[in-house]
Amino acid sequence: MNLRQALTFLTVAELGTVSKAALRLRVAQPALSRQIIGLEQELGLRLFDRVGRRLLLTGEGEQLIAGCRLLLSSASSLKEQAQLLREGDTGVLKIAGSPQHIESVLSQFLHRYAKRYPRVEVRIREGTGNEILTMLERGEIHLGQNLLHAVKLSEQHFGSLPLGSVELLAACHPSMPLGPQTTIEVADLAEFPLLLMDSGFGFRRAFDAAARMAGLKPAIAFESRNPHTLLALAEAGHGIAIVPSQLQCQRYELRIVGLTHRRRVLQEPLTISWDKRRPLPRFATDYCAMLAEHMRETFPITRPTEPTSANTKGKHRFRAQRAARKMRRLRN
């Protein structure tokens, strides 16, 4: 199997049709079909089952996919290594992170990094924990930011550097009756409608794990991939948003409290990870060290607020109670 055959095989497997694969690879459909047939004959295996217009991997084809990806990744690594030898501190750094990491951390950090490596082009992709892991496995990015326990990283294949910890926070309209403290037990959220991030995000899975430990069955009012959607709904009195302490919340009129379980602050370690099977350029390893230093200086970005005064609470209590009643009616 040569590199062209490996790329053809992988593309057809991912897209499921010859026509889509031909468009991506800019190859005529008949030529691409002949490549697949030729590869099957060369290997002596049927790689695809034809179901209508779709091509589905056979069991033998499934077992060859991982090796095919590794072959292409190795070839890409050799090209990148040659480029690094030619250009030194010039190149492209491909990274991925969660929406809140990009907004609250990278928006400021990239200026700092650019002063050290002005000739490095940083390309950013956004994703959930599992999406970022997939990008790393496919060699689509050099570095991926994630919660340490959000995805299962193989220690044999992946390296990582700790970036500090992110705390779990509850954000709500100041009139919500959360009590006078700057923290609240997860179990005490049972009576409130909750605004949660999509289940694909590691932060959401961290909250779900905390809820299970506390015996809480969350009353979920809304889920979103955009944490600022949750903050806007919380500000309007529609529930309590569960957000990470790395999210910028200053522009909203909200009360912020920390989440605890048995009086212990709930937090999750952050890391930045890479595939050890691919060589990292020096500007990528320096990126990790510089990012860790930046986050030590700036975290947490959002902290619990002091309890709102009784007068302000009274001013807004009716709106919050009305929203809570509406949410209970919808759930029932």
TrEMBL record:
PROSITE patterns: HTH_LYSR. Signal peptide: none annotated. GO terms for molecular function: DNA binding; DNA-binding transcription factor activity. Residues 313-332 have a biased composition (Basic residues). NodD regulates the expression of the nodABCFE genes which encode other nodulation proteins. NodD is also a negative regulator of its own expression. Binds flavonoids as inducers. Belongs to the LysR transcriptional regulatory family. This is LysR family transcriptional regulator.
